[in-house]
Design a protein that fits this description.
The complex is a heterodimer. Chain A is built from 18 helices and 20 strands. By secondary structure, chain A is α/β, with parallel strands linked by helices. Chain A folds into three domains: about 240 residues, Rossmann fold (3-Layer(aba) Sandwich), CATH 3.40.50; about 140 residues, Rossmann fold; about 80 residues, no CATH class. Chain A has a six-stranded mixed beta sheet, with helices on both faces. A six-stranded mixed beta sheet of chain A has the order 16-17-18-13-19-20, sandwiched between helices. A four-stranded antiparallel beta sheet of chain A has the order 2-1-4-5, with helices on one face. The longest helix of chain A is centred in the middle third of the chain and has 16 residues. The relative contact order of chain A is 0.11. Chain B has a domain of about 220 residues. Chain B has 17 helices and no strands. In chain B, helix 15 runs antiparallel to helix 16. The longest helix of chain B is centred in the C-terminal third of the chain and has 27 residues. Chain B is globular, with a radius of gyration of 20 Å. The chains are: A alpha/beta, B mainly alpha. Chains A and B meet through helix 2 of A and helix 10, helix 11 and helix 12 of B.
Chain lengths: ~500, ~350
């Protein structure tokens, strides 16, 4: 094994150098003018908020996406990567956030597939299994290479992916949030392997958001924000506070600030709510007329708490009281009866019935109202839908048109209308303005404010810090399944939220 | 290639012997083949207990004669299903190829038999290729496309044949004999069918193209990201399926001695799909073995033969046949997942 010393100065041993990389999807620029260099044999972290462009950049480096503009040099030579296979041939492999494998095929095949060219070439099973076994043992993991991929733990699946990267002699391995689903012990093992790969002279790009892990592992860090690279520096030269400031340092956008409404009785009390593996010992309460923000990183357990409160994936232990009554919420129908409404995160998947009409979508949560005794009364359906379309200013050509034809912002308003029809006393909004344009966003914020003023208790989950700050009376922050802070409006800043959101310790 | 064949035969034999069964006893629940074999044995024992006439050499011979058609077609259908598609047009392709093959025999009785075989296989391959092209180019679900070509091909074949059947006296004597004897006693078409199964096994298990079919069926997104091209795989599986349905068409002519545009192959796709699925091939793609499919075909063949022997009335035969397919599916799934209780608890594991 040839050990290459960790480079102390940069620029001598450049592996990849990209200039002016940009990427647009459907006319929206998600990556702008990125310059980036990486040295042979370093472990380099990419940091940034959700949606800052890290994953997009990683996919460009590994040939999954083609950049809209910009150049890439590998070992000084200009290259254009048109496919992951081509990147792989040049020694670049991406390990996806969700391991992309063939669940029905054996571990050995999962390691090997992709190198083969097809046709009637013979597959030599014994050689293939031997090679896979050697790779596995070189990684120090014990996985039966003949067993199917299905049923392996995420950690083991990642090991198989690493073995695949090694089997094609990768010089650069890009790992997209490899630790997101691992236990601390598995993280230790992975880091051991990453260090060994580095000592063999391989280069690693590590995408993560746990600062402690990055300090532990990475020589340098590059920080992305809003699709731009804002800094690259040796990890040791930056403090946590500086890194966080670089991650969020955008100017506060113009938002309509909420007019503080009168806050009355407690609407919902949550005590010691736990769902193992998702969230633990969550305590909070929301009063009528109050907007409580819930911040944190993706995967911190925010949506899981919301889903538990709405009875989609109920908590295993803990207590919930709604309007002064202890309740158990086992399914969404009960939650609706209790006056809880939930606008889920991904409207395309969990929100709209794409092919149905706007009016059917709006009235979907009140079947007893529009269809007493099981017979649909179109006139009631129509009237209810019309009322809210006017009230919320939803732009439609006709109530009968399918909701899929509306813009994202109008779809989102229609979903809100659906839940307002249930006359909720508690409204849970999960990333309500993600992916909708600025104008629609402002209107939406206005609506949230009015609902609170009318006495609704609102739990607002958002990764958009300015939005959280502008709307919330209080902000709760979750990190790795736990509530870390409860920040009153007066003390809330982006820094305070990020400090509470970024997980600090690997071992707990 | 010869070495590969030897290995495959070896492989086949090893899988099938009782020795292996015993050696794998501990892992038997995971082995698809063992589960289906158990169901086959169970069914034979029950049928034998009810009617001892069932457990005779004569029955075995009848079953053996009943399966070549389904077996050859099932090999094609299995390849398609492993790739996460389905070929519903198979019955019409069989009928089409049988008619064209029959026309060759009728109009050119002096040509050697092999010409008829080749023409039928090529016609089948061509119709399969058309299916594959439509599915791959227009990115349409194969269940819809082949439902369309099921009618399309049947309609064309009516016109082509002038709605007249190929009569028994137009089918060469030598072809009929292939369904009855061979120098080794077992009819030729049985030998050819099992040879086809062996070749398909070698292709799927021991060539890179074969493994690519499994990869695409198991996870098309991952396959694309690993540089496996989906388009040629789709074309390939439908063409192979069509070619094998074409071969089954000639088998039909050999076995029944006539080809009728309104009868030949009608509803055949359902028999074939049932056999493949009973053989444990996952309709979700990526999973399936030739040996298990062969066992599925034999099981359904045995059921078909057993029902009349057991004295079931004609009305009930269809219902019982369907019921046995369902029982075989449920039991097969249970065996794989280690007990009936695992059935509802586990999400689809293929």
């Amino acid at each position: 094994m040839n050990r290459i010393p960790k480079p102390q100065t940069y620029g001598h041993n450049r592996l990849i150098s990209v200039r002016g990389i940009a990427k647009s999807f459907a006319g929206i620029e998600v990556l702008r003018n990125v310059d980036f260099d990486i040295e042979s044999g370093e472990v380099h972290a990419l940091l940034g908020e959700n949606g800052a462009g890290k994953t997009t950049f990683a996919k460009i480096l590994s040939g999954v996406f083609r950049p809209t503009r910009g150049t890439m040099r590998l070992g000084g030579e200009l290259v254009t990567l048109s496919s992951p296979l081509e990147a792989q041939k040049l020694g670049i492999t991406l390990i996806h956030q969700e391991p992309l494998s063939f669940p029905d095929l054996s571990v050995a095949e999962n390691v090997v597939l992709g190198r083969s060219r097809g046709g009637l070439r013979r597959v030599r099973w014994s050689n293939m299994e031997h090679d896979a076994r050697v790779l596995m043992s070189s990684l120090g993991v014990e996985i039966d290479v003949r067993r199917p991929m299905r049923g392996l733990s995420i950690s083991d699946q990642q090991m198989v992916e690493v073995a695949r990267a090694l089997s094609v002699e990768s010089r650069l391995i890009v790992m997209d949030e490899p630790t997101a689903a691992l236990t601390p012990k598995e993280v230790d093992m992975l880091f051991g392997i990453i260090r060994r790969l580095r000592d063999e002279g391989r280069t690693i790009i590590f995408i993560g958001h746990r600062l402690e892990e990055v300090r532990d592992l990475c020589d340098r860090v590059t920080i992305f924000r809003d699709g731009e690279k804002v800094a690259t520096a040796p990890t040791s030269t930056l403090t946590d506070a500086e890194i966080i400031r670089l991650m969020i340092g955008r100017p506060l956008k113009e938002y309509l600030h909420k007019t503080t409404s009168s806050i009355a009785d407690t609407a919902i009390v949550v005590r010691e709510l736990s769902l193992p593996g998702r969230f633990e010992n969550v305590n909070f309460e929301i009063r009528h007329g109050e907007i409580v923000g819930l911040g944190g990183m993706v995967g911190a357990g925010r949506s899981d708490v919301a889903r538990a409160l709405f009875g989609i994936a109920p908590a295993e232990s803990g207590f919930v009281a709604v309007n002064g009554q202890w309740v158990t919420i086992k399914n969404p129908a009960e939650a609706i009866r209790l006056g809880i409404a939930f606008v889920p995160e991904d409207r395309a998947v969990a929100g709209i019935f794409r092919t149905l009409s706007v009016e059917s979508n709006i009235t979907a949560a009140v079947p007893h109202r529009i269809a007493p005794h099981g017979v649909l009364r179109r006139s009631v359906e129509h009237a209810d839908a019309e009322e809210f379309v006017l009230k919320l200013g939803i732009k439609v050509a006709s109530l009968r048109q399918s909701i899929g034809e509306l813009s994202g912002g109008n779809q989102q308003k229609a979903i809100l209308a659906r839940w307002l029809l249930t006359k909720p006393s508690i409204l849970i909004l999960d990333e309500p303005t993600r992916g909708i344009d600025i104008g629609a966003k402002a209107e939406y914020h206005d609506m949230i404010g009015k609902l609170a003023a009318a006495g609704c208790a609102i739990l607002l989950i958002s990764s958009d810090l300015p939005e959280l700050l502008a709307l919330s009376d209080r902000i709760l922050v979750m990190s790795e399944g736990r509530l870390t802070v409860n920040i009153p409006r007066a003390e809330a800043t982006q820094e305070a939220i990020m400090h509470a959101a970024v997980p600090r310790a690997v071992h707990r | 290639m010869r070495q590969c064949l030897v290995r495959c035969i070896d492989d086949f034999a090893r899988n099938a012997t009782m020795n292996t069964m015993i050696r794998l006893a501990g892992r038997v629940a995971q082995v698809r083949e063992a589960g289906i074999a158990m169901i086959l044995v169970l069914f034979s024992l029950i049928a034998g207990a009810v009617e001892p006439r069932f457990l005779t050499g004569e029955t075995a011979r009848v079953v053996l004669l009943a399966i070549p058609l389904v077996l050859v077609a099932a090999m094609g259908q299995m390849i398609v299903i492993v790739a996460r598609h389905v070929d519903l047009s198979m019955g019409s392709i069989l009928g089409f190829s049988a008619i064209v093959g029959g026309l060759v025999f009728r109009d050119h009785p002096q040509w050697p038999l092999v010409i008829g075989f080749l023409v039928a296989i090529l016609v089948g391959a061509g119709l399969g290729l058309f299916n594959g092209l439509i599915v791959a180019i227009f990115k349409l679900p194969s269940i819809i496309v082949t439902l369309g070509t099921l009618s399309l091909y049947r309609g064309i074949l009516f016109t082509l044949s002038g709605a007249r059947q190929i009569d028994p006296n137009d089918i060469p004597e030598s072809l009929i004999r292939m369904a009855q004897t061979s120098p080794v006693g077992v009819p030729w078409i049985v030998i050819i069918a099992f040879a086809v199964a062996l070749v398909v096994h070698c292709f799927l298990k021991h060539t890179e193209a074969g493994r690519h079919i499994y990869a695409v069926g198991s996870n098309p997104v991952a396959a694309r990201l690993r540089g496996i091209r989906i388009f040629p795989v789709t074309i390939l599986v439908f063409t192979l399926s069509g070619a094998l349905a074409g071969l089954a068409g000639i088998f039909y002519a050999a076995r029944f001695g006539y080809v009728n545009p309104g009868i030949t192959g009608v509803g055949f796709e359902f028999t074939v799909i049932a056999a493949v699925v009973v053989g444990g091939v996952s309709i979700n793609g990526g999973v399936g073995s030739v040996l298990a499919t062969v066992l599925g075909v034999v099981l359904l063949g045995a059921v078909t033969v057993a029902l009349p022997i057991l004295g079931t009335s004609g009305f009930w035969q269809n219902a019982l046949y369907g019921a046995i397919i369902l029982i075989a599916l449920v039991l097969g799934r249970a065996v794989r997942q280690g007990g009936l209780r695992g059935l509802s608890a586990t999400k689809d594991a293929g």
